Amino acid sequence: MAGKLLSIGECMVELMQAEGDLLRKGYAGDTFNTAYYARTFLPADWSVDYLTAVGTDTVSGEMLAFIEKTGVGTTQIRRVEGRSPGLYMIHLKEGERSFSYWRSVSAAKTLADDADHLRAAIEGSDIIVFSGITLAILAPSAAETLLSELRRAKAAGKSVVFDPNIRPRLWDDKQYMLDTISAGARSASLVMPSFDDEAAHFGDADVAATIARYRGLGVYNIVVKDGPKGVTLSFGDAPLQFVPSANVDKIVDTTSAGDSFNGAFLARYAVDGDPVKAAGFAASAAATVIQHHGALVSRDKLPSA
Ligand code: ADP
């Protein structure tokens, strides 16, 4: 059955240390990474589009060309005069990564400013993906515009998928962060949190507590990711199910583990509707991703869909 997936958020320019003082340029962001993996694993009769805002400058044009080359659609990406994409730099020191960000005036902050465009894009989609990072970069009124469209989509029976991806440095105020993440979950039909983040910021004692909290917010489908251990699924009235992670002997780079898991899970779940099988497939995809460098691992290295 054909369908349309829309992912909403911020894709940034990534600068990574190369030889000497040289930098290598790439493009990444949690919701874009998820779109990339969904595109990789969905059949050709599904479309995958990214919704964000970029500038009219050269680097914005290059980013659009890059996104298109991956097969992710760019027709929902608005171009805003006088803005540029956010940028981050990865520093490598003795194998440890650290990051610097320039994103305070990024074009993506305006992604919800055209409410009619947002509504039309969401109405035209079957699966809509967003994250806590999507909400963190928006002004409170823009976040509310997005959330009210997502609540409408959920009420209309669409699949609205939320990864809380809690990043405290993106939020000025802890209580606002927790309230907005909870509002994001309420707008979603499927929530895919990482247990470490939830324990650190919501104080959940265990995975069952994370599930109970999101169920209490009216979320009926939940996938809690717990790194090397595995994932716990709570779907509708079915009993909780645990799906272990794949064994990985040598981790190369954990960037995008959660995003690739999400993209692979959504692709498989959209096609056959079995969350346990989808989680098993996503675990093998994420295990492959962490054995390679970078957020976006090329198709030929990934398990076949
Ligand atoms: P995030 O990257 O969002 O913090 P997790 O660390 O929970 O998310 O990882 C997401 C998924 O990646 C896990 O559910 C698992 O499938 C896979 N994964 C992460 N770390 C490992 C690991 N050390 N070994 C095997 N799989 C892993």
Would you kindly provide a written description of the structure presented here, covering whatever features stand out?
By secondary structure, this protein is α/β, with parallel strands linked by helices. The protein has one domain: Ribokinase (UDP-N-acetylmuramoyl-L-alanine:D-glutamate ligase, 3-Layer(aba) Sandwich), CATH 3.40.1190.20. 38% of the residues lie in helices and 23% in strands. It has ten helices and 14 strands. The chain has helices spanning 30-41, 58-69, 115-123, 132-136, 140-155, 174-186, 195-202, 207-216, 257-272, 275-289; strands spanning 3-8, 12-17, 23-28, 46-51, 53-54, 78-79, 87-93, 96-102, 127-131, 159-163, 190-191, 221-226, 230-235, 241-244. The chain has an eight-stranded mixed β-sheet, with helices on both faces. It has a four-stranded mixed β-sheet with strand order 3-2-7-8. The protein has a two-stranded parallel ribbon with strand order 5-6. Helix 2 links the parallel strand 5 (53-54) and strand 6. Helix 1 packs across helix 9, helix 3 packs parallel to helix 5 and helix 9 (257-272) runs antiparallel to helix 10 (275-289). The chain is globular, with a radius of gyration of 18 Å. It starts with a strand and ends in a 16-residue tail after the last helix. Adenosine-5'-diphosphate binds next to strand 12, helix 9 and helix 10. Residues 194, 225-228, 231, 245-246, 248, 251, 254, 257-258, 261, 283, 286-287, 290 line the site of adenosine-5'-diphosphate.
